[in-house]
Amino acid sequence: MNKLSQHWKKIANCSALALAGLTTSAYAVKDLPGGPAVNQLNLHAPATKLAADQASLHVFMMIICMVIFVVVFGVMFYSILKHRKSLGHKPAHFHESVKVEIAWTLAPFIIVIFMAIPATKTVIAQKDTSNADLTIKATGHQWRWGYDYIKGEGEGISFISSLDNSHRILSNSGAKGDMPDDYLLKVDNPLVVPVGKKIRIITTASDVIHAFAVPSFGIKQDAIPGFVRDTHFLAERTGMFYGQCQELCGKEHAYMPINVQVLSEADYSAWVQKKKAEAAPATAKNEAAPAAQVAQAPVSEKK
Amino acid sequence: MSFKSFAIAAALFAGMAGQMSVAQDLKGDVQAGEKKIAMCIGCHGIVGYQASFPSVYKVPMISGQGAKYIANALNAYKSGERKHPTMRSVALGLTPQDVADVSAYYELHGNILPAPDQIAPAPAKVAELLTKGGCAGCHGANFSKPTTPDFPKVAGQHKDYLFMALKSYKEEGSSTWGRNNAVMGGVAKQYSLAELKMIADYLGSQQGELKVVPQSKFR
């Protein structure tokens, strides 16, 4: 009994803390460019043409829905008010009107086709992963992302990207006080890609299903163990972009962010050189057969 | 026979010397370790949690395991000596200091009661297998008191995990799983899978010091 009351006390404390957090610290957080904004209601600001297309499709569908909503409810409420029984209106009695049947079959059909044409164009563009300039494999692990640069400039680069542990500690202690803008989105090694190049992301996983998603790029693709799926994006501006694992994958699901850094082409080449230089002495030391590594290195550099 | 045990001892020594040079002089801090174990809890702190690669088995109990051994295992995942994609990604995200802290934390995690000095005698067939491999020579007579802290306590560990671990020492040539260890490789390769299963079943059913300690639901 005593234990139970203790638990209740703890629950009460927790909810008090949560309330305090809502009222005090929430105001200190600012918008995160490339990530979520404060009180954001709409989609993320698009950084790729596909994301912009998705956003305009979203608006387009919304307008159609609103028009239908207004027309249907307008007619309904008008009829209810103006043709009510107390004013002496009599209901019409008819059955199996072919004209009405055709009208209410054709009208939605035309509306659906009208909506499907632009949507299909975008869906097909989303699935077209051919002719990529750079191919990167993103592997979901419990609970980190592994990136392997498979083809294109930077081929052979491979690293693991994980949440900054200081943010995990902040979360554990109840996320009180001043929170960083990139709270739970900051990683040690962001995925680095060049601007204006078509990047193909191949997704897979080593344990359970994860999902690779970056809202600003308009991409989301499940990463399934034993399967290979792909998606692509072409970033139109440089900067940091953020996403999160979007398939519930276990206890730390909320703590495996995706952070993509888009660099200018020159900066990207410099980054590749730096990564190669870091990797070269390490492989020479670790590998039993350095000759094979050396033989491979110039080939990838020529590309 | 004596040559074999000499070879094992020599290999042991070489292996230990190699491992010692990796994490020397690093003192694990239990308090700091507590802040770095969020990901460990996600599997090792959930009762009955099963890994799905390369087959389904319960993830090992690590609360009460020796700190030195945990550090060795993490470093082996890091270097590729042990291959497992998920554990590799976890280990690669840890600095040498993180490894020391996490290991120190788990050694003292939970209310660890010392294992009995005497465990149930093995059935004749299993006893023969254990003698053949010289298992007690490193892991201790009760399999909870390894002769040096470099080796794991194995008594009471999950049977299916023990089997998977032993089996993985036999695996060669796979790029995604297997363990490469001079000593355990030599030992495990002399057995058939059926024999490894018998050993794992016996060791797993003994009383040991290992536990799964779930995270408290309240803080």
How are the elements arranged and paired?
The complex is a heterodimer of chains A (303) and B (219).
Chain A: H1 2-23, H2 49-82, H3 98-127, E1 134-141, E2 144-151, E3 158-161, H4 165-172, E4 191-194, E5 199-205, E6 210-214, E7 219-223, E8 229-233, E9 239-244, E10 257-263, H5 265-286, H6 290-302
Parallel strand pairs in A: 1-5, 4-10
Antiparallel strand pairs in A: 1-2, 2-3, 5-8, 6-7, 9-10
Chain B: H1 2-22, H2 30-34, H3 38-44, E1 50-51, E2 57-58, H4 67-79, E3 82-83, H5 85-92, H6 96-107, H7 124-133, H8 136-139, H9 159-170, E4 178-179, H10 182-188, H11 193-204
Antiparallel strand pairs in B: 1-2, 3-4
Helix pairs in contact in B: 4-5, 4-6, 9-10, 9-11
Description:
The complex is a heterodimer of chains A (303) and B (219). Helices cover 43% and strands 19% of the residues of chain A. Chain A has six helices and ten strands; from the N terminus they run H-H-H-E-E-E-H-E-E-E-E-E-E-E-H-H. In chain A, the strands form three sheets. Chain A has a five-stranded mixed β-sheet, with no helix packed on it. Chain A has a three-stranded mixed β-sheet with strand order 4-10-9. A two-stranded antiparallel ribbon of chain A has the order 6-7. In chain A, helix 2 packs antiparallel against helix 3. Chain B has one domain (26-204): Orthogonal Bundle (Cytochrome Bc1 Complex, Chain D, domain 2), CATH 1.10.760. Classes of the chains: A alpha+beta (303), B mainly alpha (219). Chains A and B meet through helix 4 of A and helix 3 and helix 5 of B.
Mean of pLDDT of chain B = 83
Indicate the CATH class of the largest domain in chain A: Mainly Beta
Q: Which sequence of strands runs across the widest sheet of chain B?
A: 1-2
Order of helices and strands of chain A: HHHEEEHEEEEEEEHH
Going by CATH, the architecture of the largest domain in chain A would be Sandwich
CATH architecture field of chain B: Orthogonal Bundle
In whole angstroms, how far apart are the ends of chain A? Answer: 71 Å
In terms of quaternary structure, what is this? heterodimer
Q: Give the overall average pLDDT of chain A.
A: 84
